[in-house]
Amino acid sequence: MARAIGNCRAAAILSFTLVLGISVVPASAEPIRLVALGDSLTQGYGLPSDEGFVPQLEAWLRDQGLDVEVINAGVSGDTTAGGLARMDWTLSEPVDAMLITLGGNDLLRGLNPNASRENLDGILTRLAREGIPAMLAGLPAPGNYGPEFQRSFERMYIDLAGIHDVPLYPNFMQPMTEKADAGASFADLMQDDHIHPNAEGVALIVEGIGPHVLEFLKSFASEPR
Q1: From the candidates 40, 96, 106, 116, which is the catalytic residue?
Q2: Which of these is catalytic: 63, 165, 192, 193?
Q3: Mind listing the pLDDT tens digit for each residue in 144-176?
Q4: How many structural domains are present in the chain?
Protein backbone atom coordinates (compact mmCIF):
# COMPACT_ATOMS: atom_id res chain seq x y z
CA MET A 1 0.00 0.00 0.00
CA ALA A 2 2.77 2.39 0.98
CA ARG A 3 4.61 1.54 -2.22
CA ALA A 4 1.49 2.28 -4.29
CA ILE A 5 1.00 5.63 -2.57
CA GLY A 6 4.68 6.45 -3.14
CA ASN A 7 4.43 5.56 -6.80
CA CYS A 8 1.32 7.73 -7.24
CA ARG A 9 3.02 10.61 -5.48
CA ALA A 10 6.13 10.25 -7.66
CA ALA A 11 3.99 10.12 -10.79
CA ALA A 12 2.11 13.23 -9.70
CA ILE A 13 5.35 15.09 -9.01
CA LEU A 14 6.76 14.00 -12.38
CA SER A 15 3.61 15.11 -14.21
CA PHE A 16 3.65 18.47 -12.44
CA THR A 17 7.34 18.93 -13.22
CA LEU A 18 6.78 18.17 -16.89
CA VAL A 19 3.86 20.57 -17.11
CA LEU A 20 5.82 23.25 -15.27
CA GLY A 21 8.85 22.67 -17.45
CA ILE A 22 6.81 23.00 -20.63
CA SER A 23 5.15 26.14 -19.36
CA VAL A 24 8.37 27.95 -18.54
CA VAL A 25 10.34 27.06 -21.70
CA PRO A 26 10.14 30.17 -23.93
CA ALA A 27 9.00 29.84 -27.50
CA SER A 28 11.83 29.81 -30.02
CA ALA A 29 12.59 33.34 -31.17
CA GLU A 30 12.33 33.98 -34.87
CA PRO A 31 15.49 35.15 -36.64
CA ILE A 32 15.79 38.83 -37.47
CA ARG A 33 14.57 39.37 -41.04
CA LEU A 34 16.89 41.89 -42.68
CA VAL A 35 15.87 42.93 -46.17
CA ALA A 36 18.69 44.10 -48.46
CA LEU A 37 17.07 46.50 -50.93
CA GLY A 38 19.37 47.22 -53.84
CA ASP A 39 20.48 46.61 -57.39
CA SER A 40 22.77 44.06 -59.06
CA LEU A 41 25.47 44.55 -56.42
CA THR A 42 22.98 43.33 -53.84
CA GLN A 43 21.32 40.77 -56.09
CA GLY A 44 24.62 38.96 -56.75
CA TYR A 45 24.72 39.41 -60.51
CA GLY A 46 26.97 36.90 -62.28
CA LEU A 47 27.75 34.87 -59.17
CA PRO A 48 26.66 31.44 -57.91
CA SER A 49 23.73 31.61 -55.49
CA ASP A 50 25.93 31.16 -52.42
CA GLU A 51 28.61 33.71 -53.36
CA GLY A 52 26.59 36.91 -53.74
CA PHE A 53 26.41 39.76 -51.26
CA VAL A 54 23.28 38.55 -49.45
CA PRO A 55 24.39 34.97 -48.68
CA GLN A 56 27.89 36.10 -47.76
CA LEU A 57 26.54 38.81 -45.44
CA GLU A 58 24.12 36.38 -43.79
CA ALA A 59 26.91 33.85 -43.23
CA TRP A 60 29.18 36.55 -41.79
CA LEU A 61 26.49 37.80 -39.39
CA ARG A 62 25.66 34.25 -38.28
CA ASP A 63 29.35 33.61 -37.64
CA GLN A 64 29.21 36.53 -35.21
CA GLY A 65 26.42 34.74 -33.32
CA LEU A 66 23.48 36.72 -34.66
CA ASP A 67 20.32 34.79 -35.57
CA VAL A 68 19.44 36.56 -38.80
CA GLU A 69 17.92 35.88 -42.20
CA VAL A 70 19.01 38.27 -44.93
CA ILE A 71 16.37 38.62 -47.64
CA ASN A 72 17.58 39.38 -51.16
CA ALA A 73 15.59 42.33 -52.52
CA GLY A 74 18.21 43.24 -55.09
CA VAL A 75 17.09 43.76 -58.68
CA SER A 76 19.70 44.11 -61.42
CA GLY A 77 19.49 47.47 -63.16
CA ASP A 78 17.28 48.97 -60.48
CA THR A 79 17.47 52.67 -59.66
CA THR A 80 16.31 54.52 -56.57
CA ALA A 81 13.03 55.12 -58.41
CA GLY A 82 12.64 51.37 -58.94
CA GLY A 83 13.35 50.68 -55.29
CA LEU A 84 10.70 53.16 -54.23
CA ALA A 85 8.17 51.79 -56.73
CA ARG A 86 8.41 48.26 -55.35
CA MET A 87 8.16 49.09 -51.65
CA ASP A 88 4.67 47.58 -51.40
CA TRP A 89 5.99 44.29 -52.77
CA THR A 90 9.13 44.42 -50.63
CA LEU A 91 7.08 44.92 -47.47
CA SER A 92 4.48 42.28 -48.33
CA GLU A 93 6.30 39.84 -46.02
CA PRO A 94 7.41 40.52 -42.43
CA VAL A 95 10.43 42.82 -42.29
CA ASP A 96 12.38 43.62 -39.12
CA ALA A 97 15.00 45.90 -40.68
CA MET A 98 16.20 47.11 -44.06
CA LEU A 99 19.62 47.77 -45.55
CA ILE A 100 19.31 50.15 -48.52
CA THR A 101 22.07 49.89 -51.13
CA LEU A 102 20.66 51.88 -54.03
CA GLY A 103 22.08 54.64 -56.20
CA GLY A 104 24.67 52.89 -58.34
CA ASN A 105 22.52 52.80 -61.47
CA ASP A 106 21.38 56.40 -60.92
CA LEU A 107 25.07 57.26 -60.93
CA LEU A 108 25.88 55.22 -64.05
CA ARG A 109 23.02 56.88 -65.94
CA GLY A 110 23.88 60.36 -64.73
CA LEU A 111 20.40 60.85 -63.27
CA ASN A 112 19.66 64.07 -61.43
CA PRO A 113 20.83 63.64 -57.81
CA ASN A 114 17.83 65.66 -56.63
CA ALA A 115 15.52 62.99 -58.05
CA SER A 116 17.61 60.23 -56.46
CA ARG A 117 17.42 62.07 -53.14
CA GLU A 118 13.62 62.29 -53.37
CA ASN A 119 13.36 58.58 -54.07
CA LEU A 120 15.58 57.57 -51.18
CA ASP A 121 13.72 60.01 -48.97
CA GLY A 122 10.46 58.31 -49.99
CA ILE A 123 11.85 54.90 -49.07
CA LEU A 124 13.12 56.06 -45.68
CA THR A 125 9.88 57.94 -44.96
CA ARG A 126 7.85 54.79 -45.72
CA LEU A 127 10.04 52.68 -43.44
CA ALA A 128 9.74 55.23 -40.63
CA ARG A 129 5.97 55.21 -41.01
CA GLU A 130 5.99 51.40 -40.80
CA GLY A 131 8.30 51.46 -37.77
CA ILE A 132 11.04 49.51 -39.60
CA PRO A 133 14.66 50.40 -38.70
CA ALA A 134 16.80 51.27 -41.71
CA MET A 135 20.48 51.53 -42.60
CA LEU A 136 21.77 53.36 -45.65
CA ALA A 137 24.83 52.45 -47.74
CA GLY A 138 26.20 55.11 -50.05
CA LEU A 139 28.54 55.35 -53.02
CA PRO A 140 31.06 57.99 -54.06
CA ALA A 141 30.50 59.82 -57.34
CA PRO A 142 33.28 60.21 -59.90
CA GLY A 143 34.12 63.65 -61.17
CA ASN A 144 33.23 63.02 -64.81
CA TYR A 145 29.74 64.52 -64.37
CA GLY A 146 31.22 67.69 -62.92
CA PRO A 147 31.91 68.86 -59.36
CA GLU A 148 28.34 70.01 -58.69
CA PHE A 149 26.89 66.59 -59.55
CA GLN A 150 29.59 64.89 -57.50
CA ARG A 151 28.89 67.03 -54.42
CA SER A 152 25.12 66.66 -54.72
CA PHE A 153 25.24 62.89 -55.14
CA GLU A 154 27.58 62.24 -52.24
CA ARG A 155 25.82 64.78 -50.03
CA MET A 156 22.40 63.15 -50.44
CA TYR A 157 23.39 60.08 -48.43
CA ILE A 158 24.83 62.17 -45.61
CA ASP A 159 21.84 64.52 -45.52
CA LEU A 160 19.22 61.77 -45.63
CA ALA A 161 20.95 59.75 -42.91
CA GLY A 162 20.87 62.84 -40.70
CA ILE A 163 17.29 63.78 -41.51
CA HIS A 164 15.96 60.27 -40.89
CA ASP A 165 18.38 59.46 -38.06
CA VAL A 166 19.60 56.23 -39.65
CA PRO A 167 23.14 54.80 -39.70
CA LEU A 168 25.14 55.43 -42.85
CA TYR A 169 27.91 53.32 -44.37
CA PRO A 170 29.32 55.95 -46.73
CA ASN A 171 31.01 53.82 -49.41
CA PHE A 172 29.73 50.34 -50.25
CA MET A 173 32.77 49.64 -52.46
CA GLN A 174 35.41 51.11 -50.13
CA PRO A 175 36.99 47.79 -49.01
CA MET A 176 37.75 46.88 -52.63
CA THR A 177 39.22 50.31 -53.29
CA GLU A 178 41.40 50.08 -50.19
CA LYS A 179 42.62 46.63 -51.22
CA ALA A 180 43.55 48.00 -54.64
CA ASP A 181 45.28 50.99 -53.05
CA ALA A 182 47.32 48.56 -50.95
CA GLY A 183 48.75 47.02 -54.10
CA ALA A 184 46.23 44.41 -55.18
CA SER A 185 44.88 44.47 -58.70
CA PHE A 186 41.38 45.92 -58.78
CA ALA A 187 40.69 43.85 -61.90
CA ASP A 188 41.36 40.67 -59.90
CA LEU A 189 38.42 41.58 -57.64
CA MET A 190 36.01 42.14 -60.53
CA GLN A 191 34.08 39.93 -62.91
CA ASP A 192 34.89 40.05 -66.61
CA ASP A 193 32.43 42.91 -67.15
CA HIS A 194 34.62 45.14 -64.93
CA ILE A 195 31.45 46.44 -63.23
CA HIS A 196 30.48 43.75 -60.72
CA PRO A 197 32.72 42.30 -58.01
CA ASN A 198 33.59 38.63 -58.05
CA ALA A 199 33.19 36.40 -54.98
CA GLU A 200 36.50 37.62 -53.53
CA GLY A 201 35.47 41.23 -54.04
CA VAL A 202 32.11 40.58 -52.38
CA ALA A 203 33.89 38.98 -49.43
CA LEU A 204 35.88 42.19 -48.98
CA ILE A 205 32.71 44.27 -49.15
CA VAL A 206 31.09 42.08 -46.49
CA GLU A 207 34.17 42.31 -44.24
CA GLY A 208 33.91 46.09 -44.47
CA ILE A 209 30.19 46.62 -44.02
CA GLY A 210 29.54 43.57 -41.83
CA PRO A 211 30.56 45.08 -38.46
CA HIS A 212 28.39 48.13 -39.15
CA VAL A 213 25.36 45.99 -40.04
CA LEU A 214 25.98 43.89 -36.92
CA GLU A 215 26.04 46.99 -34.72
CA PHE A 216 22.88 48.27 -36.42
CA LEU A 217 20.99 45.01 -35.85
CA LYS A 218 22.19 44.58 -32.28
CA SER A 219 20.91 48.06 -31.46
CA PHE A 220 17.33 46.77 -31.56
CA ALA A 221 17.67 42.95 -31.62
CA SER A 222 16.78 42.66 -27.93
CA GLU A 223 13.60 44.69 -28.32
CA PRO A 224 10.25 42.90 -28.76
CA ARG A 225 9.38 42.39 -32.43
Answers
A1: 40
A2: 193
A3: 999 999 999 999 999 999 999 999 999 999 988
A4: 1
